[in-house]
Amino acid sequence: MNNLFKYFVVIGALILAFSCNETSDDDPPFLDLSSKELIFWPEANQKNITVSANREFTAESSSLWCTADVISSSRDNLKISVTTNETVGEERTAEITITCDGISDILTVKQLAVEPSLSVKETTVVINEKESLDFSLEITTNIPIVFELPEWIQEGDNNEPVTGGKTYLFSAFALEDGTSSRTGDIIIRSKDPDINKNVIIPVRQNKENCILRVASYNIWVNAASWPSRKAMVNNIVRKYDFEIFGTQEGTKTHLTDITSDGTYAYIGEGRDGGGAGEYSAIIYKKDRFEVLGAGNFWYSETPEIPSRGWDAVNYNRICSWGKFRDKVSGREFYFFNSHFDHEGKKARLESSKLLLSRIKQITGDYPVFSTGDYNDTPTSEPIQTILNDGILKDSYVLSETPPYGSFGTINNTSNNTPTVRIDYIFVTSHVRIKEYGVLNDRPDGQFPSDHDPVLVVAEF
């Protein structure tokens, strides 16, 4: 009986809902809203509510941005639509008046304001006036903005601020004689004082060259000995203050152990793809350099995918490269790091040709460092191919002070002085080599690696 009663109650309610407009004229008018308030995000949208009434009803909005449409349904029978609220920082409200035979009710519609946004792609600006006094800022905003500039910086032409994205041009005045650098802040803020939104961009101007401590270090993949060697490798890197260096034979484990203290980071990919296999990684001081671009290619006939080429038999060989900005001087440069095949003579020769081709294709007129274990001696055809092309020069030959340490770079964990040089730092003509050395450290008679690192002090 109870279930039967519930059944009739439900049926009765449905009949009442679907016939609310067919009641007798003697019944008093009835009006009820399923919601008295709707809230919309700033974007254009629509929502429905249910109006329960026993007469036909109308709906009228107080604002043009908000419309109300009665639809032929007993449920969700009033559609509310809003346009996009493009006003920053200002919520808006409309009232929908719903009327049924002399009685009425109010639906309040609120639409949230667009939050003010202001973003700048650049986090700092470094101006090296030996290159240019001009610079730009890429700004995206939805509010009117103004610039507050140091007195030695002026805006460029066509710098009228607009909402949306735009590149704004600026220029610094040249430093006075006897002044080597100066610093300041560019403040970008809302033109409306009631909107508290601003971005501060530190700016540094100098007329200094970039001086770097650059190294190439084959750290030896030998996993069994790495736990006892990693402290020695880390000590060499920090003792001689490597600022940016190319590594060979490091796996993800090796690289993590070298960079885990947060001083250094690295770019590159395992030679077998992703994180698999040995890397030709470039490790750099995070506080000193900004990475502007990076990539990899493989020494093979299919350089865009993990692969081995020509007469290389056992291993894929990879080159990792990056474009860097020195945060101190503002100078930008490219860095290539390689590990040539140790077995295939043709593979090494063709790798030299591919390296030269990619450097010409990628770098333009920027300074270039090319480090690596090239697995061949200075008089060999692959190395002579690199040097005879003319774009890269041997830092050993360029050094303005006599090279120190051994001539050779591969020690094979032998106590004999290394005599075979297969690790190199090549540079373009932009770069001066002030010092060159091979670091023959043997802490407590132990060998950090089966190669000794090459270190140069470079200026450009």
Give a description of the structure:
With 460 residues, this protein is of the alpha+beta class. It is built from six helices and 29 strands. The strands form seven sheets. It has a six-stranded mixed beta sheet with strand order 20-21-19-18-29-28. Helix 4 runs parallel beside helix 5. The longest helix has 19 residues, at 345-363. The protein is elongated.
Structure classification: alpha+beta
Strand content: 35-45%
Number of strands: 29
**Could you estimate the helical fraction of the residues in percent?**
10-25%
Strand order of the largest sheet: 20-21-19-18-29-28
Given the structure, what is the number of helices? 6
- Looking at the structure, what is the overall shape? elongated
pLDDT < 50 runs, ≥5 residues? 4-22
Backbone CA Rg: 35 Å
Calculate the terminal CA-CA distance, rounded to whole Å.
Answer: 96 Å
* Average residue pLDDT: 92
Q: How many strands, which pairing sense, and closed or not: the largest β-sheet? A: 6 strands, mixed
